[in-house]
Amino acid sequence: MNHPRAYQNQQIVILGLARSGVAVAKLFHELGAVVTVNDKKEREQCPEADELAALGISVICGSHPPTLIHGGVKLVVKNPGIPYTIAPLVKAEELGIEIVSEVEVAYHVCRAPMVCITGSNGKTTTTTWIGLMLDKAGLKPIVAGNIGRALTEAALEATEANQMVVELSSFQLKGTRDFHPQIACLLNLYETHLDYHGSMEDYIESKAKLFANQTPDDTAVLNWDDPVCRLLANEIKASVLPFSIKEELDYGVYVQNEDKHIVYRDQAGSIHPIIAVHEIGIPGSFNVENALAASCAALTLGVSTAIIAGELREFRGVEHRLELVGTKNGVQFYNNSKATNATATIRTIESFEPGLILIAGGLDRGSDYLELLPVFKERVKGLVAIGETKHKIMQVAELAGMNAVKAVDTAKDPQAAIAEAVSHAVAMAAPGDVVLLSPACASWDMFTSYEERGRMFKESVHNL
């Protein structure tokens, strides 16, 4: 796309309100474009609509009118979660109108260099860690993107003195064209979001757009233990900085086999110790990987190993990511509502000793969840199943020979359902056990977001 200034007096359609839609609508309006914002939700469900309308922006709610997209529209900016199969986007493609995500718009107005993080799992933790490391080093990071703050809004306040630290989803990256981060981190790639992408190939291609415009002067941080990441390394023009939890690398950040220390081996072959794995402030092998990736990004920007080690040691995690809610009658309760795919749940279960009680289930995207079978057999002693997928996950528990299995009535309102799930879990648990909410599914069958699901779980635990 062109710079947003080039669309003065031209018609722009923004599909979807929410944070990113509001931010990008305001930007184009301020630059003199003729902006129409459209959301299929009813007006009363769009609290942002009145604010935009007061600025003189046309807001259409409740449907996608057939006349919304026409030959006079010069650009469509879509909310990342909106599928490309809806009628307005199909029509835009037929008319040759460019369709981008808010991330592409933000890139064109951002003056700060960008450190961008994507992957199937671990994005938020890694992004947060990098932000903390850069802040401690005085590099003035601004953290935004999929982590909570609209990238366009953050980009407009950034200067050359800042570092923009950006969490990105495959949905956001799919709608980019010129987007060019100076440091790009790909944490891992697992089968997920296929209901949106249609195929694993499209999912991988969308993630790989993170590197599409990088040059040899840029850095690509890649998980050397992930086979897809290794394959992508052959196509990337940037300088590749790998990390590994399994392999001692000739160059990169890795865990030493013998003493389990994270170290950085530079291009000259010198080894720089960072921290012992057991000192990292949050548990789980997946968080060791996140620590390695964050270290790579920080080292690239000249952050000292002492600062990196300090932040790895002090950080206690992000809400809804393996978050210790509390202990009741000797039972620990963990909120891992952000685990929206089976791989994330498996890796979380593996962080604990065998014998935990799991609360799982949610939106049905067509998976059979059989990949959960080994950890169910070896590590889970009780299951409480919720949501659309409850029968599928209970079937896996049955195959695993699990005796303690309960289902929650999905007709209940969300708060009552999650309270019932906690109650069932408590009945299964003994002092010393762990009750873990790690759904392996998206939340949208019962909840507005994984955050709402996690908050309701925490409230139910606190009310015990």
From TrEMBL:
Major localization class: cytoplasm
The keyword Cell wall biogenesis/degradation is annotated on this UniProt entry: yes
All copies of domain Mur ligase central, residue ranges: 117-298
Binding site for ATP: 119-125
Subcellular location: Cytoplasm
EC number(s) per entry: 6.3.2.9
Known pathway: Cell wall biogenesis; peptidoglycan biosynthesis
EC supergroup of this enzyme: ligase
Keywords, ordered alphabetically: ATP-binding, Cell cycle, Cell division, Cell shape, Cell wall biogenesis/degradation, Cytoplasm, Ligase, Nucleotide-binding, Peptidoglycan synthesis
InterPro entries referenced in this protein's UniProt entry, alphabetically: Mur-like_cat_sf, Mur_ligase_C, Mur_ligase_C_dom_sf, Mur_ligase_cen, MurD
Keyword Protease: no
Chain ranges of the Mur ligase C-terminal domain: 320-441
GO molecular function: UDP-N-acetylmuramoylalanine-D-glutamate ligase activity
Function: Cell wall formation. Catalyzes the addition of glutamate to the nucleotide precursor UDP-N-acetylmuramoyl-L-alanine (UMA).
NCBIfam families: murD (TIGR01087)
Annotated protein name in UniProt: UDP-N-acetylmuramoylalanine--D-glutamate ligase
Organism: Paenibacillus agricola
Lineage: Bacteria, Bacillati, Bacillota, Bacilli, Bacillales
Gene from which the chain derives: murD
